[in-house]
Amino acid sequence: MSKTPFYITTPIYYPSDKLHIGHTYCTVATDAIARYKRLRGYDVMFLTGTDEHGQKIEDKAKAKGVTPQQFVDNIVAGPKGILDLWKLMNISNDRFIRTTDGYHMEAVQKIFKKMYDKGDIYKGKYTGMYCTPCESFWTESQLVNGMCPDCGREVRAAEEEAYFFRLSKYAEPVRRLLTETDFLEPKSRVNEMVHNFIDPGLEDLCVSRTSFTWGVPVDFDPGHVVYVWVDALFNYTTALGFMNEQYQDFEKYWPADVHIVGKEIVRFHSIIWPAMLMSMEMPLPKKVFGHGWLVLNGEKMSKSRGNIVDPYQLAERYGVDALRFFLLRTFPFGSDGNFSNELLISTINTDLANDLGNLVSRTVAMVIKYFGGQLPAEKVAGEPDEELKALALELRSKYEKAMEAFAPHTALAEVFKLVSRANKYIDETAPWVLAKDEANKPRLAAVMYNLLESIRMASSLLRPFIPASCEKIFAQIGAPESLTDWENAGIFGALPADVQVTKGETLFPRIDMAKELAELEALNAPQEPAAPEIPPISIDEFSKVQMTVCKVLACENVKKSEKLLKFTLDDGSGKPRQILSGIAKYYKPEELLGKTLVAVTNLPPRKMMGQESNGMILSAEKDGKLNLLMLEDSIPAGAQLC
Ligand code: ME8
Fold first, then answer.
1. Fewest CB atoms less than 10 Å from the CB: which of 141, 305, 310, 369?
2. Full-prediction pTM beyond 0.90?
């Protein structure tokens, strides 16, 4: 029997800056859902990619002195780029689309032309407020305090001859889609869309630009490029081969089962996207799920706010699975989640090191200690077994319900109820006491078997979240691949009675919270701004500076000045030299009498607080501390530094 197709997508990411853990959150969640569906036996198509056009990219490339293509190539495919990050995070996408791929661009041109021919795209003039970072036009009434309602940044007035999409025509069908079906979830987002965007009246959408060139050209009107969101949204179809020859999966996978997107782009996916698909007379995706943001101290993580957390750093320190797990275990997917290093470390320590890691290592160690690594077939059931088994047997359906509702955090919470119960079962059965009497061996074997089964069943369901760790667990508890599938996740007693275990590495080492927090703080401390680069000078230029050894004849504070000291110096010329220096904060005048200093003596005279200063006394300054440059008193006044 052929498998049922399941098509799931993440947004395609802007390669404008390095991706941060907020982006990782979205992709890891989608990956876990895709892996879950594969576990369920679906023929999954998991798509991600990059959204590479638009003014923002063009501007950034220009600022860097590279072409836009070079710029995006580096961020997408360069070292520690987007592709590298997904590889690191063990993302199992089946396809990756770049909107600069030729097949996609040609398809977008055809799509644009089709909507134009139909009369749903027409030429007009656009005047409005434009947010460059979001690539969005806004009307005055949509602005919040005069700023972009999405990102809160400045907008600028813009006027262009442009093409428009008749979004207004689709207002009612889109309203019905949102209010009468389960198209958009969580439900809380439906009200937001209807009240904020549809109720005030949907205006036609500006879908071409003439102010820059980095985009898909409108082939029938040179000078216009297709609005980046039209270009971007259709990626979900072109990546399957819609209106192109690159792929042939459109019939099989379209309509998408779910688009997973962040909450700030729900508007594009739940209003503009279905309207354009209606115009194209194409089936609509079955669902759009708008997840929340990872925030840091209440603010969305984003490069421009300078509050990003680097996924590379965390994955390198704690392991990819620990990071994947933390993201999905901690935060309800539909709501915002406040990231902190403390939370990350305590989740790893509590759930992974103490609960799961400990359960596996203790169980395996006991099977080795009491049975040489292989259980005997003979077993005797006992008191708390049934409760443990019942929990294990209920788990799969609870987990399924949560995963189907896009609630991975709930699914994980269910799995960890079993993990905790199994740990408690060890305390209740006290295997170390049973082991004291040879006659208890069949009972002890049953306890061990029940633990191994609980671990197997829990780990089969943890696999979409922490795939690499689960492989290690299966190897340790002697569970072959065939017993870790969905079907066996619902069966207690699948492992052979004489199962053999193998000691393995520690799965999740405990982290010393205080030490780790201090290290992270040091690593991520804001860098001191780099000293401005001083251009080199020639030796001739340097030799023009006259630096003369001077003896301090007199020194006093300058009246009404907190900063200045007035020096009378012997510079060897026979005539006293007066220099004012802003060092009163650091020295008392009397400390300096008779000292041997160095002064630049060929500067033009200048007036300070009404007094003339003829030169500059040299000193050294760092971190708010200042020291005058003092020489040995044996060096005579008038000697030149060379
Ligand atoms: O929006 N927490 O790209 P993008 C959670 N190119 N999710 C976050 C996040 C955070 N702090 N920061 C970003 C785009 N994201 C468009 C998509 S799709 C046809 C075009 C999520 O790189 C964000 O919500 O700005 C979005 O879902 C995804 O990362 C890509 O964001």
1. 141
2. no
